Amino acid sequence: MKIGVLSTNRNLYSTRRIVEAGEQRGHEMPVINHKRCYMNIVSSNPSIHYNGHAIWGVNAIIPRIGASVSFYGAAVVRQFEVMGVYSVNESVAITRSRDKLRASQLLSRKGIGLPRTGFANSPGDTDDLLDLVGGAPVVIKLLEGTQGVGVVLAETKKAAESVIEAFRGLKANFMVQEFIKEAGGADIRCFVIGDRVVASMIRQGKESEFRSNLHRGGSAKLVKITKEERLTAVRSAQVMGLNVAGVDLLRSSRGPVVMEVNSSPGLEGIETATQIDVASMIIEFIEKNARQGRTRTRGTG
User: Fold this and answer.
1) How far apart are CA 29 and CA 284, in angstroms?
2) I need a surface site. Which of 222, 270, 283, 290 has the fewest CB within 10 A?
3) 3-class DSSP state of 33
4) Which helix (H) or strand (E) holds 80?
């Protein structure tokens, strides 16, 4: 098979591992910079061009699209779908998961555990908004943030009001969530492929840091998850419509709560912590499921 990897940097760990895994299984694995693709959108013979030439003969694609280029990256994935190319994660699922507010609403509709979350527009709503999520301390998140950037822990009501006022002054979209104190600055990343969790790790934030992101100095190790956590992770990926996803959970006093569902989860942390060849599992999934023209909208809206 010819499996295109949509990535802006072929030297990134995740991109390299996917290419290596595919080549070891006998596939052609071109790396395509989706930012440099351009599209011919016609009904008779739609195409994608890259480096001056039309792309042909691709059987499947693996999108590795950064949050900063979600709109254009999803458009490129959608064009491949129009051309009948199988995408391991479809364009609508990627955009669905990237919108944190939309994702939370969809997960809520399916009864999946979430931190209490508030979203508002008017400055006059601040007091009631904080009460809705249980009061301070609260976590305030920019909807466009990623890897822990744009996430603030406000430990007092006054601090929360100040952060909210600042974000509103910037005309930034944000949401307010309850702070899950019992999680102790740790979260669980479940790597979902298809209908199962293939690997899981617990990430612990560095001392005095409530964010557990590895990019912010956190540490990770293998963890055994419960049946409830496993089911929550798989259901969350399915609600988003993602075949490959990183689902981030917190262990709360009322069970697992979902913090985020990532459509382009990194491989370095999970493979290092678990010693599991996740990249090869992604290729295996494509081998079993990729069919010409097999694109459909999955998920809940």
Assistant:
1) 14
2) 222
3) coil
4) helix 70-82
Using alpha carbons, list the distances in angstroms from residue 25 to 15, 120, 184.
16, 50, 41
The type of residue at 50 is Y
Element (H, E) at 186: strand 186-193
Instruction: Provide the CATH number for the domain around residue 252.
Output: 3.30.470.20
Output the DSSP codes for 244-288. EEEEEEEEETTEEEEEEEESS--SHHHHHHH---HHHHHHHHHHH
Q: What is the pLDDT of residues 240-261, one digit of tens each?
A: 999 999 999 999 999 999 999 9
Quickly state the pLDDT bin for 262 (edges 50, 70, 90). very high
Report the candidate in 130, 134, 125 with the shortest Cα–Cα distance to residue 168. Answer: 125
Our CA dihedral for 26, 28, 31, 36, rounded to 10 degrees, sits at -160
Beta-carbon contacts of residue 250 (< 8 Å; ≥ 6 apart): 115, 180, 183, 186, 187, 188, 256, 257, 259
- 279 within domain boundaries: yes
CATH number assigned to the domain comprising residue 47: 3.40.50.20
Residue type at 1 in one-letter notation: M
Q: Say what the pTM is.
A: 0.88
